[in-house]
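User: Quick sanity check before I run a bigger batch. Here is a single chain. Can you write out its predicted 3D structure?
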Amino acid sequence: MTARGIGLAALLALLACLSGAASAGGHDRQDVAPARVATGAAPPAGDEQVLPPADDPAHDPGAHQLLVMLRLPATHYRPDATYGGRYIDDSGSSGRRRRAEALAQQNGLTVVEGWAMSLLGIDCYVMRYQDNADAARIIEQLSRDPQVEWAQPVARFEGMGGQAPAAYGASRPAGAAPSPLASAAAAADALYPVQPAARYWHVADLHRYATGREIRVAVIDSGIDAGHPDLSGQLAINANFVDDGEPPPEIHGTAVAGIIAARSGNGGILGVAPKARLMGLRACWQLPNLSTRCNSFTLSKALNYAILNGAKVINLSLSGPPDRLLDRLLDVALERGIGVVGAIDAQASGPGFPASHRGVLAVASQPNVKMSGNFAPVSAAALMLKASAAAGLERPLFAPGNDVPTTAPGARWSFVSGSSYAAAHVSGMLALLDELQPGATPTQLRRMLQPQEVLNAVNIDACATISQLISHCSCGCSIKNSQRGANP
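Assistant: Done. Predicted structure follows.
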């Protein structure tokens, strides 16, 4: 067995031990299936292994639905749609609902749900159309109604993550002796030494200067296991925008939350910003094949909530088509100084939400560049940079996203890979920067993460980033010897 194989076997044994200890302590939830490590071929170099979407309409609440945005009425009395010399007060929610139902009836639609979005000056309604109806024709017909700001399909979005088939590269890089703080972190959190955030970002050392204290990070994702020992007490809010139930513990959201803000001293992992306050906003749901699905309406409700309730960072570890409603909400978030982080879908053939939205910090997994004979293949990072430049998009950021140990439902831990988890690392870093530079704009935050003088760096240099803000910073690595070009 190779040294790499020994490291993997030891890690898997450690994971089993940790899960068993948590179960003995009463943390294990018997109603939640344990997270599984996916088998099969390894993902493409540096790219996520996205689980195939399930297309069963029963698992897609947006099927045969449209979003109809109605202009908010003036606050004074105004006539209704069937004005006959009589004025009614339809500025209240019940009057606006009646207005929406009348419009729906006129167009052969049924109102499913409505949500006031005063940020945009609209009420957003989900309306269902008949199975045999032409959605494009209905949208065109609605656009001619003066009450309608616009109408659009309910788009689908997918989480940008899958579980890694193996945890290669688990040993510490040669010559990188742990600092005293890193050694202490390893004693408190057994998986810390194999976290990419430890090996390449030295987060235990960074925590001498910032921990993300009281910074609100909105995790707009699937459900988070708030009872996980690494996440207990970390959620300031745990809300559900998918249905009326309590947010269930789901794989993707729990994994993302752990990378951002797992608290120290619980035997598992250490989050990039362990003192941040998470806003768990469930706008996505887990499908039977364990992939993650969201739609325009659920995401818009969560974004609207995050903006209105003090989020300083919004994490969107997902991707889908451009969406007018969601783009409008991101414009408001960015105007208010909220840092927005989005995962890149490296398989996408065109612009997508949220990574293509100007001002969003678009993040991809740091690629694995492998040698073949005497030649190195073209880096996936270089190809992505070239494609972004050709499309007129902002330069993507690269962060650890391969073989990341993180939290899993049922007081467990698992290894994951994908740009979802690279984005989570960057959201944690933004929380650290927001603590050190409270008034920084999203543009300034981006410049801190990737200064002009290091634009050719493959990966974010966390130590150099913090060193810009802290005099006499010593975070276990020097700028010239940091991880630029390293391959997590």
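The chain has 13 helices and 20 strands.

User: Great, the batch can go ahead then.
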